[in-house]
Amino acid sequence: MPALAVDHLTKRFGATLAVDDLSFSVEAGTVVGFLGPNGAGKTTTLRALLGLVAPDAGSATIEGRPFAELSDPAHTVGAMLEGGLQHPGRRGRDHLRALARAAGVPAARVEELLELVDLREAAGRRAGGYSLGMRQRLGLATALLGDPRVLVLDEPANGLDPQGIRWLRDFLRSLAAEGRAILVSSHVLAEVAQTADEVVVIHRGRSVAQAPLSRLMAQRAGGVRVAGPDAERLAARLRGDGAEVVAEPSGAVLVRDRTGEQVGRVVAEEQLVISELSPLGSSLEEIFFELTHDEEGAPA
Asked: What is the C-alpha to C-alpha distance for residues 32 and 268, in angstroms, rounded to an integer?
């Protein structure tokens, strides 16, 4: 059973079709980047997962159940939407303490989280005086109060400085390494490329790409270039496995639909001698724009 599952989800708001027959899943121990232009349906999908909007068709479940049916939601899923929605007059520590009491979480967890997200020194200040980056950190601490197995995060890198973004990347990877499932919506595509295991890209409410990040980069961004004495032998083996391989006049080969890891595995299995194995093509940002442009060429 996946930790998160969106199954043929459809949601309308009046005449607007916000989400259109969308399906994807998130497994435990993985970070999945949820990408799409503004208005693509990302926030509606996240809100459906959290029981804040009711689907018109299909389902959105956490560990096999709708949010409303979870027996222990605080310890199952943590969410960060719109920076955490803190009351501006409440101090950061008091904000977390109030939520901890409501969820039955020990007060000691609050201090632990303030240290974890580097807000201990600012915890006595009112949230209305926080910078955007500090509010993001407080929102992340809120999501982690119940030490949940699943995290749903909407733009957690928004407002963070470069050091904060790097901290967030390492933090999310460490949480995934502990076995948590993380769905993260983000516009910071360069950071998604360094953080996510998989990506789901939606446009106008529909999925336009779902794949492990390494596979998407290989398939959409040009593939892998291989050179060396045994490049032709490698090409013959890969063609036999159904790969798309193009020979260059120099003797090197371009493998269009395999990742560097997949090609490297074949090289090791066959004990081939190569001098170059390098990925080709575009960044995740360029692939994203290619996937989400309208036919007229303008971004949605």
From this structure: 29
Cα–Cα distance list, 244 to 218, 241, 255, 256 (Å) = 12, 9, 6, 5
| Span 148-192, pLDDT tens digits | 999 999 999 888 888 889 999 999 999 999 999 999 998 888 889
Distance CA 80, CA 183 (A): 11
Cβ atoms of 114 and 92 within 8 Å: the answer is: yes
Give pLDDT tens digits for 43-100: 999 999 999 999 999 999 999 999 999 999 999 999 998 655 677 889 999 999 999 9
State how far Cα 128 lies from the chain centre.
29
Q: Are 146 and 87 in contact (CB under 8 A)?
A: no
Would you give the DSSP letter of residue 126?
A: B
